[in-house]
Amino acid sequence: MRGFLVIFFLVPVFHLTAGTVIEASGELPADGRDEHGDTIGGIGSGLVYDAGGDVFYSLSDRGPGDGALPYRPRWVVLKIAQAGDKLDIAIVRSVILRDEQGHDMTGQIPDDQAAAVPRMKDGRTCIDPEALALASDGSLFITDEYGPYLYQFAADGKMIRRLEMPEAFRPRTAEGSVDFSDRAALVSGRNINQGPEGMCLMPDGKTAALIFQSGLIQEGGRESPTTRLIVLDLATGNPTGIFVYPFTPEVPGMEQPVKIKNLSVNDLTVLSDGRFLVLERDQYGRDGSSDPKPARYKAVWVVDTSCATNLRTDQKQAPRAVEKKLLFNLPDLVKDTAGLAAKWESLALVPPVSGGAITLIMAADNDFLTPVIHHAGVRYPFPRVQDSVPSQFFKIHAALPENP
Asked: Is residue 7 part of a domain?
């Protein structure tokens, strides 16, 4: 499979904010550090609840400066306790990601073009982690935007294996070579820094669902009105389902729609077989600048794939997209939208969960926005930061729609 049709869908929008409430909120300071002495940041990139330990696994992305600094990506275990309308968030431990040989991985942009996987010329394996899920055996599955790949890591942070995406998702140049860097002129595959941004394990524990941040390059990349939701068999790595996910540029109450190129998908959480929550957002909000545009669109959608065309088995000329219904738009729930971070990127379901309602923790990636970064004993000035942005968390209770 080398490509998909570029298609546009008009999706009905239903405003369901009524019945949705923020129960509590909390944050971690932008200059906080972990037991390694490293600045904690980016941990809203992925989030999952571990009911057995009553803790959350959160995921840094590739680090400060969009891959410019030699940051060691990690997951951070958090304890989140509620006291009234406040969330008390404490760091339990950090686990640094390591490759098959046990060497620390790096978030830097790969520079070894001859390597078969994303690597630096000094041999370090590169990863840009964006979503995670906890398996029943205690291992963690983590997506990587450089590859794009789905990795499995042991509980101590050492890589167990990597699963490749189908050929249509691999970043290729006009010469046909795979290029994992952020500087290549690509003609197909995942868009640069726009890989599998959301991921979850399905109820059977045998498959994983992933969603890409924007459209494939051969479909228009950031300008594409659609992206892809893919289901992988974890035993073989083969896709069992590939579905069209359409962006929705406008929700009720917005004065004007968001341009498609400014929209992205940022997380995916399963409700039941074929039914998901998807986090879709604009790029506005606190971004480290002194006068950012207020957040307008940080929406959670209920998505159903049951009636959508499976492109893995059906190559229709006009495939049917997944169905969407708006659950809530975060800016509608807060009094001060100017205080919201720009990059809301993770959802985690927590008890109680019933057939008609859910409770979730929603977290933002603060992008390491603090004036000084501490990492591996080195102090790095981060001069572009004029506003220190904490890691923000909300606990939200929402009534689910009957359909989709």
From this structure: no
